[in-house]
UniProtKB/TrEMBL annotation:
Name of this chain's protein: Addiction module component
A Pfam family this chain is assigned to: Unstab_antitox
Highest taxon of the lineage: Bacteria
């Protein structure tokens, strides 16, 4: 089915499909808005939301551990030095 899309008062574009219409509209968005739309569309394909829910819970737990002093943060340079020393 073809769609008629009015670009302005003097120009009309006939679209071959709804997908082409959506693509044309999406390409008018800013790069940031297109990235956000792409992320939204990609996440809609994820069938296993349990993994994302599990990561949300784990992230919240780790933040709480930091805020409550359960874990001690160390500077990245110190952590890398320990890893390098362990690999020698």
């Amino acid at each position: 089915m073809a769609y008629v899309y009015c670009i302005n008062s003097t120009e009309t574009l006939v679209m071959g499909s709804q997908l082409e219409l959506l693509e044309a509209e999406a390409l008018k968005l800013s790069a940031g808005d297109r990235a956000a739309l792409a992320q939204l569309l990609l996440s809609s394909l994820d069938e296993d939301t349990g993994i994302e829910d599990s990561w949300d819970i784990e992230t919240a737990r780790r933040i709480a551990d930091i805020e409550n002093g359960v874990v001690q943060l160390i500077p990245l340079s110190d952590a890398l030095a320990k890893v390098r020393a362990a690999l020698k």
